[in-house]
Task: structure prediction
Amino acid sequence: MASDLDLLRQWARENSQDAFTEIVRRHLDLVYSAALRQARSPQLAEEVAQSVFADLARVAATPSSPLCNRGGPPVSSLAPWLYAVTRRTAIDVIRKESRRRMREQIAVEMQNMSATESGAGVPPAWSEIEKFLDEAMESLDETDRSAVLLRYFENKSLRDVGEALGASEDAAQKRVSRAVERLREFFSKRNATIGATGLTILISANAVHAAPVGLAASISTAAIFAGTAVSTPTALAATKTIAMTTLQKTVIAATFTAAVGTGIFEAHQASQLHGQVQALQQQQAPLAEQIQELQRERDDVTNRLAGLLAENEQLKSNSNESELLKLRGEVGVLRAQLASAKLTAARPDLAANDGSNQAMLDYLGTPAPPPPNLNAAYSKEGLISALQTAAQAANISLRKIEIDDSEFPFLIGVEVQTGNDMQKLQDQIKTMGEYNYTGGISGGTYFVGNITPYDQYPAEKKHDILNRLGLRETMFYDKVSGVLP
Result:
């Protein structure tokens, strides 16, 4: 015999009405009885049952449904899932009904049903258990609740329960016994004292009642309509008719009997109008395609406009920063000029020499070698790796990377594609926590600077480093940009 999940997958993939009807046949009594205990109204219980199986059809027909495609419920039976959905649906239905102006009628129906049950010889002990049963079941964990449902609500054997839970028959017996004991303790706290054996007998005998004749066929048809999302006027009318309560069906049947002649005439007219609607839909199909194409073009233009606006805002926000970087570059040049002026005053013979840049550099202090315990991030390889990482994060390409490792700190020199790429690279370097971006010299697509933090400088050489740094940047920029060979 096919399992519940096999039938559900068959319904979802092949739209098999027979498979879904078999699922309804297997579990209708369980769903209807659980709804009846909470709603206390046969009509509302029918509506809840219809809604639960319609939800099952819709969920199963969804492509991403976990019931059919990606695993499934914790057991092979749908009983636990249907029981949980029935409880939630019944609560929603009761809340909706409380807002309507039919409280007197519902109260009368509940009194009539209670009188019928008392006359039918329902054991007094069951009357005490029934009102707390669903609340007690809800207090169990999911596996225990599944075990009780399968064993006493659907009267499965312990072997079947074990297979559904993925356990042995002995393990299933122990789990069922523990779950029954928890239920018994739950009822005892509510002054409904009963033994474990008596409790199982009452649940097996009274928890599930036979649903009204014909309800299974109505639910199967309604759920199939809901699952396949039928949208024609005839199907919608049929679905609404099926979902109506018994009282509403009675009124509609009487009205239909009185106006049967008019109904036949209107049905004939509806058939003719349906044909005309189909013809109009065929004529409108090309127009619909044109509308969709225009909508796609509109969306494309809107996206491009949004991108341009965002880029414009970015350019506006970066204008001051770009000016700041330009000023920093000019400061570096002025620093070098100041050093040249000092040298001219102190050593006219060196300043007039062709190699005055190197002479000035020597005058400003002695080179600092790298510290013996230099952090790898500030070595030549570390700086190259940092520039490549920053370029990748900024989504730009570097034309050239050069490192001046003649003395410490090492200077970086890069060439990028455009000036905008230069801004992106500098912004990205600022976010790198190990480095200290303090500006440098930039022009066009070239940039030279120092990103090694001051706290990495040897204390005894810090003065010479700072004196030589500006002139070093100027000389290295001339080399990177191609001014000097």
Remarks:
- The chain has a mean pLDDT of 77.
- Residues 259-317 form one domain.
- The beta strands are 398-404, 411-416, 440-443, 446-449.
